[in-house]
Amino acid sequence: MALIVQKYGGSSVADAESIKRVAKRIVDTRRAGHDVVVAVSAMGDTTDELLDLANEVAPIPAPRELDMLLSSGERISMALLAMAIHSMGFEARSFTGSQAGMITDAKHGAARIVDVTPVRLREALDEGAIVIVAGFQGFNRDTRDITTLGRGGSDTTAVALAAALNADVCEIYSDVDGIYTADPRVIPRARKLDSITSEEMLELAANGAKVLYIRAVEYARRHGVLIHARSTFSSVEGTYVLGEGQRSPRETEGAVMEEPIVAGVATDLTQAKITVSGVPDVPGKAAEIFTVVAKSGANVDMIVQNVSAASTGRTDISFTLPKADAATALKALAGEKARIGFENLLHDDQIGKLSVVGAGMRTHSGVSATLFEALSEGGINIEMISTSEIRISVVLRGDDLAEAARAVHAAYGLDSEIEAIVHAGTGR
């Protein structure tokens, strides 16, 4: 007997029929002799619809009340799912985040988990019940308020429960059969991976891959949780995300698995580029610029500084950041223009980022050359380049991103002979 934590996203519980299908899968797992704990998201687009309602009644909704509102979506899902399981002859008990012992800090809308005390969940499991937990939400002990965890909160909830309960595996269900070498909506012939390291998955998630959220992957790596990403709509085995020292259940004892050179290609259309032009090329100016950007709350990704022009003693500094952060960063920089002494600000929100990720990059040469040759042959211009030990990222025109991804994916020999199946269309 194993303890299995399962997470089902909004597309998996979008309507009554979907909820009954999920309930059957949970019951089948219980029939196989396993204890089951489930973290569930709000149905379909419920969270977005509740956000729209909030914005209709208040231009700037009060953060505390917004969390009270948004957390109701998961409570609906958990109760309906428990009812469906009861109708199949199995006991199920639903719990809110606070009832499940999900303790967070006090930051509404983007709370972080600080502790998990699953006393009631353990009692329910000991009494033979299937446990259903509302994802995305928690409770702050100091304020005694409900909090929400932000995007990816249900994934993070599931992983945190798996860590606290010492589960054998955390199964993250979505509408694709696992983790692919690229987004199958962009590259239909992307290949499903049997396993991937948590290090590679973190890089892919941070650079646009949507099947798993970076917070959940990081939590799993830190606490030694084995993640199994798989589909709600099929019974095929998915992809295992392996932390240090973990082995895929597919591996035979004693087998040595060589890391692939490239694990995947990620694309991201959610970023913008800001160029601070005519910056005095003297020590301290970059620090001044990025201190201002940091205080605006923007999260900077890639940075490039041009060579100083000898005639003027000035340079340009370009950086990328989420599109949603660009306006506040531009406003903050404009307010400090005279003090910093730069000449102009340029904003470009029509860029795309392409990233190639693979642990094998550490020990194989030619990875960069393959990327740049593929882009060159496609006539695609590169605007910025950034690298890490296992990643190469380039910024391109947004209109070129899909074509670039297909060319690069093929250049690394990642294409499959068959097209990937996307069951519901969202990837989560």
Biggest sheet: strands, sense, closure?
8 strands, mixed
Low-pLDDT runs of 5+ residues are none
Q: What is the C-alpha radius of gyration, as a whole number of Å?
A: 23 Å
Q: Name the helicity range.
A: 25-40%
Gap between N and C termini, in Å? 28 Å
CATH T-level fold name of the domain at 3-254: Carbamate kinase
Features:
20 strands, alpha/beta, about 425 residues, 4-stranded antiparallel sheet, single chain
How is the topology of this model organized?
Blueprint: E1 3-8, H1 16-31, E2 35-40, H2 46-57, H3 63-87, E3 92-95, E4 102-104, E5 113-116, H4 119-126, E6 130-134, E7 137-139, E8 146-148, H5 153-165, E9 169-174, E10 195-197, H6 198-206, H7 214-223, E11 227-231, E12 239-242, E13 264-268, E14 271-280, H8 285-295, E15 303-305, E16 314-322, H9 323-335, H10 337-340, E17 344-348, E18 351-357, H11 367-377, E19 384-388, E20 391-397, H12 401-411
Parallel strand pairs: 1-2, 1-9, 2-6, 3-6, 9-11, 10-12
Antiparallel strand pairs: 4-5, 7-8, 11-12, 13-18, 14-16, 14-17, 15-16, 18-20, 19-20
Helix pairs in contact: 1-3, 2-3, 5-7, 6-7, 8-9, 11-12
